[in-house]
Amino acid sequence: MAGKYDLVIKGGNVVLLDEVRNLDIAVKNGMIVELAEQISGDGENVLDASGQYVLPGMIDAHVHFNEPGREDWEGFRHGSGLLAAGGCTTYFDMPLNNIPSTVDVAALLDKANRGGSESRVDFALWGALVPGNEEELEGLANHGVIGFKAFLSPTGTPEFEAVDDLTLYRGMKRIAGLNRILALHSESAPIIHCLEAEKKGTTVRDYCETRPVLAEMEAVSRALLMARETGCSLHFVHISSARTVRLIQEAKAAGLDVTLETCPHYLLFNIEDFERLGSVAKCAPPLREEAERLQLWEALVSGQIDMITSDHSPCPTSMKTAHEHDMFQAWGGITGGQFSLEAMIDQGHVERRLPLTQIARWTAIHPAKRFGLYPRKGVLSVGSDADLALVSLNQDHLITEQDLLSRYRHSPYIGRRFRCRVTATIQRGTIVYTLRDGVMEQPRGQWLQPCEAAQAEGRTIKA
Ligand SMILES: NC(=O)N[C@H]1NC(=O)NC1=O
Ligand SMILES: [Zn+2]
Ligand SMILES: [Zn+2]
Question: Which residues does this entry mark as bearing N6-carboxylysine (predicted)?
């Protein structure tokens, strides 16, 4: 006999907006249709979640899957699979590292098609703001980019050019008119270039010293000035220092529509880890001194950072290992998207005793609100998509190379121990990953386009 529901998840500790409650969750047609202490009807499928925690699936607003053009570095299939294994049910793919970059509608639609046929979980796509594509911005917005992304410093690939100040200013004016968000990689190109010319070194410290916190603060300040002039909404990606967080918060307090993210690697690793681990831990901005890392945690805990993203940026292992003796040549990017949620639960909840409701704000609610996906995504409530992660807090988990689902199995997370483990991931009511059986082979990801009204409402989020 057919069940009343497609799926019932029984007896989990469900992470709601403001509390964690022991509830059953009923799913029908991919949506949560009932949340109750005891669900009466039966389900076609029943999942026993007793003793486990049920969180909204992570929404990772910042990944690089590099397809088309560099799918041999990762691609939608591998990338979305590793995210599913980490409890992520929606991601936003960046417009660079793929060839061509996502600079126009043709490139966007090609990427959407590829994602639609390969992705394990739902996804949105960022569009590019680069020198020369000003006329493409409107088309990209109309075709549903989640926002635009620009670099204020070189990107590490020749196909995606950083913006000059005038392109940035004009682009911001346009993007403000389109009512979209501009995400910025903010490091000052002139400061980096001058320091590089001065240094001519090869070590981890040499590399880090060419990309100081000052470079981040200067670029952010310049962008904030232009946001004030143009009215453009901004989102600062991978902010690595509490001092920069403060600048952004001051602008927010002054009424600018601006948000920011940081990544688990800036919270879990410092420059000494980078020296110990080598090129596998190279990213931009670089890992910081221990004091900076601790201050970043303080900024996060005190509510000054809106969301956590992975900035998962994979590459062939040789692009790391071949340059162990010249940190400037190694690929800058962390293979880590699989571990964002576990890292935040381990370090935020288990270690620092922050409530899981708070973790969910950073990993799901705030990104959903900011980018116009809420309340369809980001929250466990009736009417929302049944996107969720089951997490056990009774499993100690030492990450090994065999655990990695990235195409290339290198990561600074190898050797880290987490006191939690994602045991299952559910996307719109379908189990897409279990610890026992791995990632489901069948792709079922949908391309998500932001709802403009919800996006406008999301601008009032409080971290
Ligand atoms: N090109 C690219 O993926 N760059 C990313 N990697 C990184 O560490 N920071 C970035 O912006
Ligand atoms: Zn970046
Ligand atoms: Zn990035």
Answer: 149
Best probe residue, ligand 1, of 63, 65, 283 (max atoms within 8 Å of C-beta): 283
Euclidean distance between CA atoms 310 and 312, whole angstroms:
5
Q: What is the pLDDT of residue 438?
A: 98
**Structural contact between residues 75 and 118, judged by C-beta atoms closer than 8 angstroms:** yes
What domain range is 346 assigned to?
57-374
Residue-level pLDDT at 455: 61
Q: Tell me, yes or no, whether 353 lies in a domain.
A: yes
Secondary structure (DSSP) of 22-60: EEEEEEETTEEEEEESS--S-EEEEEE-TTSEEEEPEEE
- Residue 166 sits in a domain whose CATH number is 3.20.20.140
Site of tokens 């590399």? 207
Binding site feature residues for Zn(2+)? 62, 64, 149, 185, 238, 311
Task: Examine residue 452 and state whether it is found in any structural domain, yes or no.
Answer: no
CB of 91 closer than 8 Å to CB of 100: no
Question: Residue ranges of the chain with pLDDT lower than 50?
Answer: 1, 460-463
How far, in Å, from the CA of 441 to the mean position of ligand 1? 29
pLDDT at 456: 62
415 within some domain? no
Number of domains in the chain: 1
Is the minimum distance from the CB of 154 to ligand 1 under 6 angstroms? no
pLDDT at 200: 87
Which has the closest alpha carbon to 286: 173, 412, 377? 412
Establish whether residue 312 lines the binding site of ligand 1, counting it when its CB lies within 6 angstroms of any ligand atom.
Answer: no
